[in-house]
Amino acid sequence: MQEDSKDIDIIKEDETPLEELKNVDIITANEDDSNAINIIKLEEVHREHIKKFTCLNENEEFEGFKSKKIRKFKRYSREIDKFFQEEALVEQSKFLNTTHLFFVDCKLVGFISLCADSIRLNIDERNNEEVPYLNIPAIKIARLAIDAEYQRQGYGKLLMNFAVKTAFELRNSLGVKFLTVDCYEHRKKYYEEVFGFKENGVQRENRQPDSPLSLRLNIDEYLSNLDI
Fold this sequence. Notes:
The chain is α+β, with helices and mostly antiparallel strands. It has one domain (24-224): Gcn5-related N-acetyltransferase (GNAT) (Aminopeptidase, 3-Layer(aba) Sandwich). It has helices spanning 47-51, 67-93, 123-129, 155-170, 185-195, 219-224, and strands at 37-41, 98-104, 107-120, 135-146, 178-183, 198-199, 213-218.
């Protein structure tokens, strides 16, 4: 694989009905282009766009979970909405993370927030990943959400590809080995089976059972599984 990110198109055709996305570069100039997919950094001018956004799908089925946990999961979705609408711009202004909006045909479909991170691996993980250090540099997916109207259509995969491409391009300036995400248990299977994330052996000290789990994705392994 060449180390020139300009030669890499990591937008992979999905199994879901998204034929119109094939061979489309998702990183374009602005959301004003009709019939286009655009990812744009969040700015003040987007406040009106994000007011109506919600990732809470009232019809989502949480198979295998009891009603008490389902209520918690829905609360988590409301917290994501609150972050997006009230906190994302503030945190971005303080350089805590950067949020990007995902538009399809000028409609806000989702968003992703990224920040710098590092993770600690145990001895077995370091051997398996072939890394010599205890703490490994990473990019963290602080938030990733798709509007309820557009869920289960493959858009989450495009945002993940954007995160991977961002991390890959950063390698021209600094070391990045993994993508990380703090994931609640009802999303864990999705991240593991769809993208190949692995649960970290070292979790946050005093972590509660219903707190998020730290997962990691080896960027090189992910890229090697794409048809590029």
